Amino acid sequence: ELEKLGLRDDVDLHVYEVPVEYQTVQRLIPALWKKHSPQLVVHVGVSGMATTVTLEKCGHNVGYKGLDNCRFCPGSQCCVEGGPECIDSIIDMDTVCKRVSALGLDVAVTISKDAGRYLCDFTYYTSLYQSRGRSAFVHVPPLGKPYSAEQLGRALQAIVEEMLDLLEHSEDKINCQHEH
After folding, report:
1. Is residue 56 among the annotated active site residues?
2. Going by fewer Cβ within 10 Å, which terminus of the chain is more open, N or C?
3. Which residue from 67, 55, 45 is spatially nearest to 142, judged by alpha carbons?
4. Which family does it belong to (predicted)?
5. Of 58, 79, 97, 120, which is the active-site residue?
6. What's the pTM?
């Protein structure tokens, strides 16, 4: 849906479906970062427990015990051996949540600090590690429970645009500080 809606004109949007497989994630996420050198990667995952659009603040390295779609689980139960326990996104999710909520979309947006220690969290941590925090993860409820594809697409469009806006303004401040 977001691919249909697109983002503002100065943004190149690349959409990929990531399989629910630990080994594919470990190979694909670094390859996509290398291929595109993106300003930001926003991962979106469906959570059967979600009733809101949920912005995840951080990814976790350990505690992965569930089997993936290939019936595989990492023996180490972690994403990156020796990596930090938790990596926060450099995106201020509280600000994104407030800004998107203020737009008056018919979608509730909330914040979480635990993406669930399954493939969503595993993907998020892998991407955060690869990007030094330049990633985001958004959990969405299943279609129709309660939101339509169109509602979720509009919410994701607003979320990604707010994230890019925050990122661009923080980089302006960083660049400004370096010039003095």
Report:
1. yes
2. C
3. 45
4. Belongs to the peptidase C15 family.
5. 120
6. 0.92
